[in-house]
Write a structure and sequence with these properties.
heterodimer, A: 105 residues, mainly alpha, Arc Repressor Mutant, subunit A, two-stranded antiparallel sheet, 57% helix, B: 499 residues, alpha+beta, 4 domains, 6-stranded mixed beta barrel, 4-stranded antiparallel beta sheet, 41% helix
Chain lengths: 105, 499
């Protein structure tokens, strides 16, 4: 993981979207309005840098809903710290995609 | 209808994903494809649920979504852990440099092979007894590309040459009408020659019809003429042909590269002495002779001189230039350019590679050998690249004269060799002596104003942490050439790239 926590605006937006509960690629695309060619490579980069982790959902869930298995992403502790720093740098992030705790407040 | 369109779109998009998956490293491919298929299924499912005007653009949206997979696949290709072997070819690696050189050498060889006029030069063999085979020219016109000897002189020498020559052949070029098949004819440059021309040269005639070697008028074709005019038909040999209204038998074929004497032609009309004597005595042509080495000795420059007394008084001066001297082999021309480049190299750049302190504890002898092997490999690979490259430049155009082509070969190969050798040395100086990677991150050190107090110049670093290179801006008595500073393992924490 890079020592410098600077994130691009796009990466911060994707991180915020995942934090807000949009935990798979297409939902991140929908909420951010970014194209697939930007979102998926960015998520891989974030995963490589240890800011998010991915996991496949359970087979039984997919079978019950008669759909293919889906890969979900969530923030790591490090990712959360860096998102906090990025939120200070990009104050509009939380307004564009409100975090769950903000929505519940 | 809309469902059918979307189903078709899903089918097409799955195909797009499969194509993009080819770019993904094999280890990650299955998982990557599974994720994208799942995502595509959801995109398609959501589009399927939507109705209304937005539905018109859904097909395009699904396609655009799928096309994004290429970007993702490319990213994975560049960054996946399994792509590590590709690091072997990353920028600045010695293997990449050697590979580039091999590719260049292969490319220049392929271009030479693909260009018939160049390949002909590459394949050309020396004539048998080339040092004693001579082209006779009128004095002062030696090496001329036009005929200078009168037919009457040739006839006189064939009768009596005072044992100077063991054999003589005559030929001259003229445009003649060749009738091929029924009705089709073309005016082509044909060499009208004495019957022993190819025998004297030692050039074998392929497909020669047995028992017909003494036929009074025989037509010999070059391989390209045989392909062009007779479509490589092996049954034409022994058949008669009209050459300028005269019957000639198609006698055989010689290889294109076997004809390297003055005069460009693809057809040779070999005539016996009786028919050849119909030429006017003052007709000028080329005379090829086999000089008797014991009687007619060559000067150090490979030439022989001959004075012929005239009936009306006075002498005519002739020069006999050996084919070995006249027809310079492309390799010998290149060797000359190579020698010149080697001599000029120290005058244009400094040869020392810099000061590399003996550090036998850390640097094994194999590493040092590898460094020199890399430099040698570069020099060795430059030779075929430039050789074939210069041949490609010099001989690709058949409209250029032989002299111009040779001059072009000398100039192009000399300059290319000199510049390439200079680059090889320069490249070697900018590489780490341990891993042979190109040094990076140049940093200015010192100030010009303090030149007498401390050194100033550029500092480069090996990304693997093997050391630092200090290159002085102004060579001084205390810092004349670049110096390498080995870094001990305690620095390794700063260089994550290091192995």
């Amino acid at each position: 993981m890079a020592a410098d926590p600077k994130l691009s605006h796009t990466a911060a937006l994707i991180l915020q979207a995942i934090h807000a509960g949009h935990i798979y690629g297409f939902s991140v695309m929908e909420v951010t309005g970014l194209p697939s060619g930007t979102v998926y490579p960015a998520m891989r980069r974030l995963e490589r840098d240890g800011l998010i982790i991915s996991r496949w959902e359970r087979q039984s869930i997919a079978d019950a809903e008669q759909r293919p298995l889906r890969k979900y992403y969530k923030l790591t502790r490090n990712g959360r710290t860096i998102l906090d720093t990025a939120s200070k740098r990009y104050p509009l992030l939380t307004r564009l995609i409100p975090s769950p705790e903000v929505e519940n407040a | 209808m809309r469902m059918r369109g979307l189903a078709h779109s899903l089918f097409v998009c799955t195909g797009i994903l499969k194509m993009a998956a080819i770019l993904v490293p094999r280890k990650a491919r299955a998982e990557w494809l599974e994720e994208w298929r799942a995502e595509l299924w959801h995109v398609w499912h959501i589009c399927n649920q939507n109705n209304g005007p937005a539905a018109l653009h859904q097909k395009e949206e699904i396609t655009a979504f799928s096309l994004g997979a290429f970007k993702d696949a490319l990213w994975l290709r560049r960054n996946h852990a399994s792509s590590a072997p590709r690091q072997w070819f990353r920028q600045g690696m010695p293997s990449r440099c050697i590979l580039a050189f091999i590719v260049l050498a292969a490319a220049s060889l392929l271009i030479a092979y693909d260009c018939p006029s160049v390949w002909k030069v590459v394949q050309a063999n020396s004539y048998r007894d080339a040092s004693d085979l001579v082209m006779v020219s009128r004095g002062g016109f030696e090496s001329a590309s036009y005929p200078t000897v009168e037919f009457s002189d040739y006839e006189a020498w064939t009768r009596d040459s005072g044992h100077l020559f063991a054999g003589l052949a005559f030929y001259r070029l003229a445009a003649k009408r060749l009738t091929i098949g029924t009705g089709s004819s073309a005016e082509l440059p044909i060499a009208r020659a004495s019957a022993n021309l190819f025998e004297l040269l030692g050039v074998p005639i392929s497909f020669e019809v047995r028992g017909m070697a003494d036929y009074p008028t025989r037509l010999v074709l070059s391989r390209s003429a045989w392909l062009k005019y007779f479509h490589a038909d092996a049954h034409v040999f022994g058949h008669m042909l009209q050459v300028d209204g005269q019957q000639a038998m198609i006698a055989g074929v010689i290889q294109d590269e076997d004809w390297r004497l003055p005069g460009r032609t693809d057809l040779w009309l070999l005539e016996d002495a009786q028919r050849l004597s119909t030429l006017q005595p003052d007709t000028e042509g080329y005379v090829l002779a086999h000089a008797s080495p014991s009687v007619f000795r060559a000067r150090p420059d490979g030439r022989r001189q001959m004075y012929v007394a005239r009936k009306e008084g006075g002498y005519d001066w002739f020069v006999c230039e050996s084919l070995a001297e006249r027809i310079r082999e492309p390799w010998s021309i290149f060797s000359f350019a190579l020698l010149l480049a080697c001599l000029a190299l120290p005058a244009t750049t400094s040869l020392p590679l810099g000061e590399y302190p003996a550090h036998s504890n850390q640097v094994p002898w194999t590493t040092r050998v590898r460094r020199w092997a890399f430099l040698s490999a570069k020099f060795i690979l430059i030779v075929p690249i430039v050789y074939f490259g210069s041949l490609d430049v010099a001989y690709s155009s058949s409209s250029m004269s032989v002299g111009t082509s040779e001059l072009l070969e000398v100039f192009s190969s000399f300059w290319a060799l000199l510049l390439a050798f200079r680059w090889a040395l320069r490249d070697q100086r900018r590489r780490c002596p341990v891993c042979l990677c190109t040094l990076t991150n140049p940093a200015r050190v010192g100030q010009f104003s303090r030149n007498f107090l401390a050194w100033n110049g550029t500092e480069l670093v090996c990304l693997s942490g093997h050391g630092l290179l200090h290159v002085p801006d102004i060579p001084t008595s205390w810092f004349s050439s670049q110096r390498w500073l080995y870094l001990d393992p305690s620095w390794s924490a700063l260089f994550p790239v290091g192995t």
